[in-house]
Design goal:
The chain has about 110 residues and is mostly helical. It has one domain. The protein contains three helices and no strands. Helix 1 packs antiparallel against helix 2, helix 1 packs across helix 3 and helix 2 packs antiparallel against helix 3. The protein is elongated, with a radius of gyration of 27 Å. The model has no long low-confidence stretch (mean pLDDT about 85).
Length: about 110
Amino acid sequence: MSEMRLPDQAPLPPKSPEPPPGQGSLIAGILLAWVTFLVGEAVCAQAGPAAWCLPPAGILVWGIVLINGNKPRTGKGLLLGLASIFAVALLLVAACFGILSHSSFE
């Protein structure tokens, strides 16, 4: 019987480097900031005006802890979310002043 030779196998491609450990997500951080703010403000509304600064302070501390910890992108997202919350609040206040400046109180 004749022997059949198989072609030599091609060398395997080199293994890809290990992916870096999960560093979080900016979008997740922004969404967490908004959810934390909205739920926190709803809960703190019964406690009075003095408690209204607790959710933003909590988001700030949480973002700093995550930046220094193992999820820096999520921490940056939390801080970006906090900045977007302040930007929306500023725009709403400006819109209210714009509406009031064009109304007559006679």
